[in-house]
């Protein structure tokens, strides 16, 4: 029953609930679908039989809110930002209650909507706890911790009324140039599967539908987001499918999101082999599929496999794509027309609607459509217990990459310490986070950790760590109007995407600095628009000048009458760089034209004038501050994100120069990397003694970093992605297969800089020889492998024992090693514990030449160690 407190009781009443839920006194008069005592299948059939075509289609739709909703209802709602008085949770609860009440009251059948949101590493709404990002959680190699973190996130989301999580991201990130690596659990299918199953099980316990994504791969060649993929079926089944299959079969996930991109020529959102043959017919998936935001429209505008939106509707629904989000573009009138014309059989529509309704019944949405009691919700939402858990997760996620000469930990009683870095005073959270930054920055964490007598000096050192250059100042921009020179540029905005007709808005902008999010100007919408900036740029120098041209979608740029950039296509936010030759004081005509399809109304014009001079001055100040200190911490960040992929993995901007300058002072220096992917370090690694990867540490990340730097605990995180020496090695997952020749390059090793599973400690661990409970098993049997691990150092620490397996002779080539088990173990100095792993047919199976899963007879090598390349003990057993 609905349990509302007084502040929200007004929006919904128990009597209303009783009317439609089946709990009224007149049970015999209630339709079967309202009777919670009947089987789900019977309730679905009864409700489906009462629905009109319009009501069926409505269940496959999603809205931002209930504005414009018809009596047909709506299947789902995007949890929009809540406004008004009260705490963040109270505002969210009030919003959900009000919308849900109107949906139930104003639709003929009273079918409640399912509210969804993002929950990758915390509920993505104001005030919620932010835990370390997904890649950081993977770096803990701690399944039990993942379960507790996911449960905490789920409880906060459930308190706010969220019943569907568009999480987790379980794509295999084996090319860290991909900007969304931070959202994943890394490059390995086994580690990803174990973390994903723990995450999804916790959400299921809390009554929230998980939506693993993006089925099946979300980046293509070069690590580019949503580019087409053309993987073999063997590669898909061995590497990319396992996490999705595990989430469905083991964790009971009831939703799934296909990828934006195409697979072997078919958009994943309209790929019947993926969504029906594999997902439903092979794996027995009983839930519903949901497209990524606006992906169904992109079948037409990106993939060009559909001439009309109706064609896109036919392709998607008949392939097995059930629900469109976030709004109604394809599964509105285009879908209705396709059904009424017979292009989509009614049986196909009914199957999709049945899947949607079945999930709603299974999670009890009809009986409990509203958020829980607000008072109870406030006890878990952003609670002290959750922040303590976030701190533990941040501690376990930190990876000590290098520690030459035991440079770390630093002493807390240093006379002074220099903290350097443009973002050292910011607690960065990464993609898909709640609004605002984290609670504790690295600078604040260090200030809190050191002795009161220690002086903490902060210098930014550099500012250029963004993907675009500093804005061209207004004093260098002008335009001519009626023969008169006017400061700024003429800006014209059109209510179409092709600059057609008369502009809807004309104004003067001092710079090209537009980041509207929605409407770029009063009187014009934010979607399907175009705009043009016209004027002159006065050259500040004689020589080469580099411009950064940022647009939300398509762009054309003219300089001095010459077109120097054209990418007139819907492509998401992108920054292009162009270098021009100029003469100081001369004015050059410039025109920037932009088209915006949806989401990002964005345009910037930047340049590199005097940038190096300014950065060198900042670097000099930082080096001077470091030289006077007893130690230095340089906080370095990367630029990445959704559709912000990296062409190389170097630190952006002038950060490498900053690190070398600080290290040259001779002061003990530690570099702390903040980001979600790998970093190449050939330009500076030899100059510094210590490097830590802190990822995006969540609300308490700054505290955890400080504790690691000063030895409050021994770092124990392990890399879930390989760090290459150079980006030219990519992709380079550790589980490669035998080469026909060799592996190395002509002038460089092909080995990674830091391998998968790598992570150092402030103590040392010793492994005993492996022990097998048997050395020969049948194909359907199992073997238990044991090893003793002893802490031979002087401080307490956690070791992550990793088990890898190799099938020595197979009917087809097999990887040289594959992760098939891991255990985190805590040990005091001198303490020893036994770690045991069981290898069953699930861990030993392979796809034979006929694409059948089998355990082939033969010898298997078992390798246990501290990383994929630091093997401490090994042995063999045989299958016969």
Number of strands: 39
Shape: globular
Query: Mind summarizing the main beta sheet?
Result: 8 strands, antiparallel
Q: What's the gyration radius in Å?
A: 29 Å
Instruction: Find the structural class using helix and strand composition.
Output: alpha/beta
Residue share in helices? 25-40%
Number of helices: 22
Strand content: 15-25%
Low-pLDDT segments: 1-26
Mean pLDDT: 94
> What is the first-to-last residue Cα distance?
58 Å
Compact overview of the structure:
The protein has 22 helices and 39 strands. It is of the alpha/beta class.
Task: Detail the topology: elements first, then pairings.
Layout: H1 6-9, H2 14-21, H3 40-50, H4 53-58, E1 62-63, E2 76-78, H5 88-106, E3 114-117, H6 134-139, H7 143-159, E4 164-165, H8 189-205, E5 209-210, E6 213-215, H9 233-240, H10 242-249, E7 255-258, E8 262-263, E9 266-267, H11 272-282, E10 288-289, H12 295-301, H13 309-319, H14 333-340, H15 346-362, H16 374-380, H17 384-397, E11 399-403, E12 416-420, H18 442-449, E13 455-459, E14 477-481, E15 484-487, E16 489-494, E17 505-509, E18 513-515, E19 529-538, E20 543-551, E21 554-559, E22 562-567, E23 574-582, E24 587-596, E25 602-607, H19 611-627, E26 631-637, H20 655-663, E27 669-674, E28 690-693, H21 701-709, E29 765-767, E30 771-772, E31 776-777, E32 783-791, E33 797-807, E34 818-827, E35 832-839, H22 841-844, E36 846-847, E37 853-854, E38 858-865, E39 871-879
Parallel strand pairs: 1-2, 2-3, 3-4, 4-5, 6-7, 7-10, 12-13, 12-26, 26-27, 27-28, 31-39
Antiparallel strand pairs: 8-9, 11-28, 14-15, 14-19, 16-17, 16-19, 18-25, 19-24, 20-23, 20-25, 21-22, 21-24, 29-32, 30-32, 32-35, 33-34, 33-38, 36-37, 38-39
